Amino acid sequence: MRKGFTLLEMMVVIMVIAVLLLLTIPNIQKVIASVEEKGCEGQVKVVQTAVVSYLLEYDRYPSSIGELISSGFLSDKQAVCKDGHRIEVVDGQAVKQ
Question: How are beta strands 87-90 and 93-96 bridged, if at all?
Fold first, then answer.
């Protein structure tokens, strides 16, 4: 007698794996979106900290995020979130645009 799997058994296993993948992919996408959103919120807090540092250094709020970058409080990468949103300074507050 030959040992091995029949074609039907292999098809059933592949179908089960496919169903499991189809069920998990949307959840993974939701988690990735949530992580990007939380990361952007954290980045806004970093920019707000830079705004406060700028205020302590120059005794006024920066008029734009460009001032924070040119003064060395932030880098260019910190002005843009991974999800594509820009962070701006409006009335002394860091906000996601």
Answer: antiparallel
Dist. CA 47–CA 57, nearest whole Å? 15
Q: List the chain domain ranges.
A: 29-96
What digits encode the pLDDT tens for the residues 5-39? 889 999 999 999 999 999 999 899 899 888 888 88
> What is the average pLDDT value for the chain, to the nearest integer?
90
* Whole-number Å distance between alpha carbons of 18 and 22: 6
Q: Which helix (H) or strand (E) element contains residue 14? A: helix 7-58
Transcribe 24-64 into DSSP letters.
HHHHHHHHHHHHHHHHHHHHHHHHHHHHHHHHHHHSS--SS
